Amino acid sequence: MLLAAIIVTVSAVFIPQAITAVEGEKIDESPADWPSSWRKQYRIVLYSEKNGSKIDKVLNGYKSLLVEILKVEGVDVDENNVFDIPPMKFPGKNDQWISAVAHLFTRIADNLMILNQNTKALDLYEKSLAIYSGLDKHVSQAYTGIAQIYTQKGDMKGAEKYRKLAVVAACEKLTLAKFDVQAAEYGLRVVDDLAVARIDSDPTDTFIDAATELGMIYVQNHDCAKALRIFLSLVRLIAEKRESFLTHKEKYPHYTPQLADEARLKYYISETLWALGLCHDALEWTEMAYDEAVLYYMKDNSSVEVARTAMQNLAKIYKHFGREEDAKEAALQASRINLDPAKNEFRWVIGHRL
Description:
The chain has a domain at 259-354: Serine Threonine Protein Phosphatase 5, Tetratricopeptide repeat, CATH 1.25.40. Helices cover 57% and strands 0% of the residues. The chain is built from twelve helices and no strands. It has helices at residues 36-50, 55-72, 95-114, 118-131, 137-153, 156-170, 205-220, 224-247, 261-275, 279-293, 301-320, 324-336. Helix 1 runs antiparallel to helix 2.
């Protein structure tokens, strides 16, 4: 899926891994009306997953908690075949409670995906959605997992369907002026031109990830114009939220900015522009991606990856334009960027701007 021979394949470079990453998951996110023992067990398992524990240990932790919950709710469950239970409902429980139980199935499926057990994972994602399918970040993550399975199978039409559903679910309580959610071929349809959508509330990290991955599907399908509209829209939304956060921090007591999001999107824009043949614009956006990432690359792993990849591509682009000295300098500086943020002690300024 090369966009152009000169540029690193987009899909191979720091794509948001929403189906396997739990960095955005809060340790104390379990429902308040869960018993304290359930909440404690959930925190322990999620913490172990965040910190790279063995997958078998993580799976057993989620499985044990799920068995306990199902037994309390009167579900006849075989502990040795807990994943084979039929879809179920939990009448009388609030949405947060139900969503949390459904999310256990998603977390288990995410880890099965890492083990390449995609058939089992797909079944659990579908069971998660059968339990709860409202506008919720957990639902978005389930749709994202299904989309990843379709992508791995090479079914890009199916992948696009579920990427769109992930975006819709991630909206949660947001109001999007031109976000078209109507009955259609896929059950739900998301307007492609996110650039004209105005969000009346703050976009969540889950929404940003889901929309970014929808853009990536369009890149892989060589529909770069659609991808570009999404990426540009997201850069604007992130910038607006950052400005609002800086001026009204009291409104965001639990918000932690994702430092690499804007830089990563600027890099995707540069790749997409190159694929469209807009080489000088691609150069400018690659430089902007580096400038953004380097602000944080002494403390943020993702920013380091963006900075180094952008600089590597700058070396190639400079060479393409016959700027041999700039190309050599960029390649040298890229080699000096350490993927361990703590080991980066310099901030190189792009030469032509000195």
